[in-house]
Records
---
Amino acid sequence: MKEETTNGTIHSAGQRQECLPEKASCRPLSVSSAPNALAERIKELNCLYGISNLFENQDVSLSWIMQRAVELIPAAWQYPENACARIRLDGHEYTSKRFTATRWRQNTKIILNGNDVGDVDVYYIDAPPVVDGGPFLEEEDHLLRAIGERLSKVLWLKRSEEALRESEERYRVLTEQVAEGVALVQSERFSYVNPEFCKMFDIPSAQEMVDGLVRCPPAGDADGIARIYGSRAHGVIESKVEEVHCLTRAERTSWIQVCHSPITFKGRPALLSTLKDVTEIKEQQMAAQRKADLLNDENRVLRSSLKERYRLGDILGRSPAMQAVYELILKAAATDASVAIFGESGSGKELVAHAIHDHSARKNNRFVAVNCGAVQESLFEREFFGHRKGAFSSADTDSPGYLDMADGGTLFLDEIGELTVNMQAKLLRAIEGGGYRPVGNMEPRLTDFRVISASNAALHDKVNEGEMRNDFFYRIQVVQIQLPPLRNRKQDIPLLVEHFLRTMKTRSATATVPGRIMDILIAYDWPGNVRELRNVLQRYVTLGHLEFLSPDPEAEMVPIATDLNLRDAVRRLEKAHISKALSRSSGNRTRAAALLGISRRALFRKMSTS
Ligand SMILES: Nc1ncnc2c1ncn2[C@@H]1O[C@H](COP(=O)(O)OP(=O)(O)OP(=O)(O)O)[C@@H](O)[C@H]1O
């Protein structure tokens, strides 16, 4: 311990040293060492306390703190007037008054996260008395170390504060730019809301909300805010929750999707909420749901009324294969997806398409059936897209195309495999919402129609042979329905026979056929399917006996009048020949064309001109 004497010398740890002659700062004389020791201790504490206090000042820079700290240090040393100090940190140097680097130096390090990042030096400006073998006291060594530690702590706090401020700033910039509402709630009070949040709840400025109680917001739509926070306002932190709230304000209903995430902010629990206005999506969903509910209700009624399920609309059949078809029809009717129906000629593809339309939300609009086999390439746009008056010489009036007619309804494309690749490309654009232009009109048109198509054969071969575009192929057959041929569901024959006889108004009261006739009908192979069955029954009702397709077409040649010129005679013969072939094939145009030895397209052309 050091001791001071009345004659101006200092005692330290039993050694006497001369006081510096010109230094008036030698310790004041005292009668006992205890108060002096106390005074020294107070000086030390003042210094440490002063350094700690510097950090309490808000919004001060690290340089400001270091400069003030370095100025506080000399006063705590034994000879304050002879002492000076320096702090070096991050390439900066902070010095006390009269700083002079001499050989009487004392040093400690400033450490940050285990790294040596700076140091603190104390110097005596002039030679000090030697005490305990050195100019500095042991207590001063301790004090300097304590100062170094305190400055290390101040530095760490300041850096953390800066990092936090930076991340807060980043977060603020981010949240102010996002299109979603963001709010931070701590202890039932808003600490932050972004501009989008203010917009959602009619709050004039975000500033008004800061520190406002969640239960009783100082501005904006208090009810809406209270509904969103509910019991969560108590700082109860749950795991991340997402919910959609319906807010009704002044005749306006909006739907807000809220995601609450519990976080720790500035060491305390907080609730970070992001809010998104989903009114538009929600309304669309509700409209779709209403539609689906309606259809489901109708379908439920329909299903329950079809206990035996022997028919759906005009389609008859109680076989398991037809039950599966009914199920698909109802499913397809509940969606707006494109449907492709496959099946042999006369098996009821058009009936199925009608049933889908009649059970869908489009049922009150038109069902437009187009036989693609009869569409000529050159007339495609005219027929599908319509034309304007004057677009070509015979266009006396504006005329709608199939797509106009099917607006809001269904476009049934029968024999879809007959469309050329060119036609497919034009149609695909319109189906995919790209619109179309009526002939002679520059204005593009958009209509809303659902496509149902039918084909006798699978379309893969057409794709493989390059006759059908891949994209068109996939676009038209989102839902596929395969119709079974009549020969594979013979248990439906008695039901169909009874139905056709009843509709044909037979003279006999009982709409049945004798058992042996029924046996023949069941045994037959029905290449022309239900259509052929209907035609055979028609002939049976008219002629009183069964007559299937004649195996020998030559036996039924038509007599030609002798007064006709050759061209007309050929025409009449051709016409008779075509209708005979059609009758033999029970209306199946593919088979009729095959019987005649011409292409289907040629047959369609002849049918439309004759
Ligand atoms: N399951 C059925 N129940 C009642 N009638 C049916 C049934 N299937 C077909 N028909 C009748 O058979 C005839 C042919 O039906 P439809 O025109 O729907 O067949 P399609 O498969 O489209 O024939 P195509 O391929 O030749 O155009 C229609 O008169 C129809 O009423």
---
Amino acid sequence: MKISLNNVKKYYRDRLVLDIEKLEIEKGKITGIIGPNGSGKSTLLNIISGLDTDYQGTICYDLGVINKDIYNKMTLVSQKPYLFKRRVYDNIGYPLKVRNIQKEEIKKNVDKIIDRLEIKDLREKKAHLLSGGESQKVSLARALVFEPELLLLDEPTSNIDPESIKILEREIVRFNKETEATVIIVTHNLEQSDRICDKIIYLQNGKVGL
Ligand SMILES: Nc1ncnc2c1ncn2[C@@H]1O[C@H](COP(=O)(O)OP(=O)(O)OP(=O)(O)O)[C@@H](O)[C@H]1O
């Protein structure tokens, strides 16, 4: 999915926190968004995800503005993921369940993702009792399992240990290569953006820099 932003402005009261004249996010690539605290990275991601609709300007997804169909093809993994008070397995399978996928198929896909992200030890645990890093791994698994066309990641490895970061990065890149999904990742880790991103966008004071 290609995304084009035109004259996008976001205000909190009368404070302009995002001011993007023109920005194109390429289809099938991993785009990194970097920039200092408060520069508008999460705001931008929330707007692209359809979570925040209170902005000026236009955003096109391929050729259309947001609708239910496009909304169903994308997912946002937020910094503080919300997980249900159920098993990790049920949380990861949830996006497939709501899409009426059969139980056997759900099991196959959930176990494949659990395997790839190397989180077998978490499978039967209650999701609301997980640590911050464990929750991030599970929420990434829940996003990857339904193979969205647009995957939005807000600092997905901020609480993750170095060994696990390698695994998650490997799986984000694998997902992008295998499905040709568009991935946008907000990160403070410049080495990470160098490692996995095809393109990097620098935000400062709500504007796109060089
Ligand atoms: N709900 C809100 N009400 C008022 N101001 C807000 C709100 N949410 C964000 N802001 C302001 O908008 C600006 C951009 O915030 P945003 O969270 O997008 O920054 P960020 O680049 O993601 O920062 P960080 O790197 O710290 O996560 C900040 O100055 C922040 O204070």
---
Amino acid sequence: MDELRKQIDEYDNQIMTALDKRYDVVKQVAKYKEAHGLPVLQFDRMTQLVDRLTETYGSENLSSDFIAQLYDLIMHHAIELENETIDD
Ligand SMILES: O=C(O)C(=O)C[C@]1(C(=O)O)C=C[C@@H](O)C=C1
């Protein structure tokens, strides 16, 4: 059990590290959008992203509903961060 929990901890660390890096890039995207007068919200991109992830990673473990919900949360936080970055 300890060994299994260690594996879970390690995957959780990887998820957090990847999310932290993702949001660093999101803030760079916000600066680009600000400089070029582009809107923060890009619905087409959001749809394409979830479609691609569902196609590539959809499985018994990762249902399309789960992927959609997870990325709804991840992208909504990205939108909040972008708005904060632009307001600063
Ligand atoms: O690709 C962008 O334009 C982003 O700002 C990144 C991102 C995302 O989190 O993937 C966030 C907000 C947009 O609505 C679309 C996608």
---
Amino acid sequence: MNWDHLELDQRVVSAVRRAKLKSVREVLCFSGPDLQRLTGLSRSDVQQLLTAAATTCRRHPPVSALLLYHGECRRLESGLRLGVGCPVLNELLRGGLPVGGVTELSGESGAGKTQLALQLCLSVQYPTEHKGLNSGAVYISTEDSFPIRRLQQLIREQSSLRSDVPPSLISSLQFSDHIYIEHAADLESLQVCLSRRVPLLLARGLVRLVVVDSVAALFRSEFQAADWLERNKQLIAFSSTLHHLSQEFTTPVLCINQVIYTFHSWITHPKASARDSVPLSSNVSPALGLAWANQVMVRLMMWRLQETVVRGDQSSVLRKLEVVFAPHLARDSRDTAVWREGVQGVYA
Ligand SMILES: Nc1ncnc2c1ncn2[C@@H]1O[C@H](COP(=O)(O)OP(=O)(O)OP(=O)(O)O)[C@@H](O)[C@H]1O
């Protein structure tokens, strides 16, 4: 679909071309004021542009939207899921992560996102009757070193976590041989990894789960605030690569994201310095904004709560795993805890 499909003044079309906006769909990724800045058009011209773009997209749904509403929905209904390794959390997710689409898991530091991602790298290796996908996982680490010791501990503890699986099956699985660890310290190496090595692993059937831990790290570190346009373009290119991989290989993709805090109001004693101010209330939301959120099919969040739960000789900070949005799930949550053997829902 190009600009000729839009009923617009030639002047507006020329301004859009000068701004190097490549597709009608891309227009809808920007707010009105952003488009005004980009194109130099007036508010009413931009309004006209946005209305025309939205009308055209409704008449000619893009391939990804068609896939979402037909391909992905069919897959969602077909029920093929990757279980997370816990019945309580599987029930929350109606079986687990969908196999066609990008799932985002966001939350504050220490919430347990990496723990759940590691658990999925093991759970994918079980046969489908045990809610796995009978294959391995590729774990792309963009920030910290890969938590290999914790992974080994989770492997040792599998028989405690997966009491639903015969112990003989658990001991026959060579979990660590089927986890491919990739490090991508910058966007260029991430792109190389996603366009060359990951498709190869998927095509050979060696993996059926892609984890990116984390998306926010690279996009935050490589772009200054003024580079928002370039950042959004790269974000959309990155998420479309993930979508294609997920669709082509019927593979769940899990992206870990951080959160940002917005403080609404501050209390400051008249004689205190600015550093002594304390936030009165704060809002937590996933990093990377709308440009990224629009590309995600399922958004999950993990929260750290104030309480502690005890089980046998172990204690854990109580957490909550929440479904923020998903086409097939209601907004809901379950209390969870991180134990030696992994992440599990906590029965009320
Ligand atoms: N062996 C273990 N036994 C029990 N709990 C553990 C174990 N290892 C880690 N944890 C729990 O998991 C928490 C760390 O979780 P995780 O690394 O998944 O955080 P995260 O959400 O990925 O944070 P970040 O964004 O900083 O990477 C620890 O604070 C601890 O509570």
